[in-house]
Design goal:
The complex is a heterodimer. Chain A is of the alpha+beta class. Chain A has two domains: 201 residues, Heat Shock Protein 90 (2-Layer Sandwich), CATH 3.30.565; 85 residues, Heat-shock cognate protein, ATPase (Actin, Chain A, domain 4, Alpha-Beta Complex). Chain A contains six helices and eight strands; from the N terminus they run H-H-H-E-E-H-E-E-E-H-H-E-E-E. The longest helix of chain B is centred in the first third of the chain and has 27 residues. In chain B, helix 7 packs across helix 8.
Chain lengths: 286, 168
Amino acid sequence: MHPDWEHAKQAYRSPQPPEGFSGGVEEAIRRGDRTRRRRLTARRSLTTALAACACFVLLVNASPTFAQAVSGVPVLGPLARVFTVAEYTAEDDGLLLDVRLPGLENTGNEALEERVNAEITTRVQALLDEAQQRAQEEWDAYLATGGNPADYAPAVITAGYEVKYQGEGYLSFVVTVTQVRATASEQFFPYTVDLATGEDVTLRDLLGEDWKETVNASVKEQIAQRSQDPANSYWDGSGGIQGFTSIRDGQPFYLGVDGNPVVMFEEYEIAPGYMGIQEFEIPLGE
Amino acid sequence: MKYDLQQKRQLLVDHILSRQTDFYRLAFSYVKNQDAAMDVVQEAIVKALEKVDTLREPAYLKTWFYRILINEAMNHFRRSRDLLPYDDALNDQPASALDPGTRLDLYDAIQRLSFPEQTVVKLRFFEELKLEEIAQATGVNLNTVKSRLYKALKKLRTMTGEEIDHAS
């Protein structure tokens, strides 16, 4: 080989992966396994339910099995609970949808239920509409450029929720919307409601006037701790990307199993994308 | 021999684990940034694992993964185009635009080729793929690969001002 090529090859081969790289690779493998399982499960249930029909199926407390499944949802006290208000899968051109939407009931506060339920539906629906439109555009472009429909990997949108805490007058759950396309991205909307007042709980309610300082100190400490593991990395101002300085006013959080608030940071907010959503539990103190 | 999903997945995981540094270098050569290179490799891995059931023939695993990785790198290239002054590297930089007195180092010259041309050069000379494999990895036919490589080498010659012998 010509010496210039040897030289160029050396230049090409000189960059070394950063320390956390192998950890990130393993994490990506796990993430890929998860999304594949979700996609294949969604696809299986779809082929039986609706062959090649581009339509939505909406299951609202209609079927007996559905009602049964709902009654299995953990119950807050004897009454209030988060239950699945809508569940459907749909397959459209180049898009797989898998949606499970939560709602509140039996809180003894109808205004609260209406407000929260309407908010969730509106937020999630807006995201789904947007995703659907984008998927349609990509699909059209794919066909227009001569792509074979059989080889097309559909976009997968999953919406679901997880109940994080219930008890002592609070109910906390997180709604997540995941989109898998050129990149996988996850959006979340946590809700924590005070069942006595019907209001959304704020970090100030839980931690007092100094809530920002309390959270900031704890998050900084935990970032320092986690950074000891070379697999983890947080923005630290290098490369012009500012690291964590302070939480925002509306920083999302939920209540963890112990009733401590857990603050959430979106992908890329304080760390590179491979770190995913970052969560920090803030001890309530005495 | 018929491979089931779990076997294909295992082959893919083994391939990723043993070649991860090579993938990082290829990604880095496009995005020139540690975090971005890591993101590109990881997104490619997620996508490959997600779609491994669509891999028909394990013999194509190597080029199949390259294809996903290169697509990810290209997405990243496009996304960052508006933010960073990558235009020089993205668009064909006619050799005549250079001061005739300047002679570029070969590796710098490669960065100035268009995305498809860089890709052919990197896969051929740094990753040492056969032309048929490059065709599979880039999703174009063999003749396109040949003509891209020919044009790329011609541009490189003009930019470096040397008769680089590309035969290895």
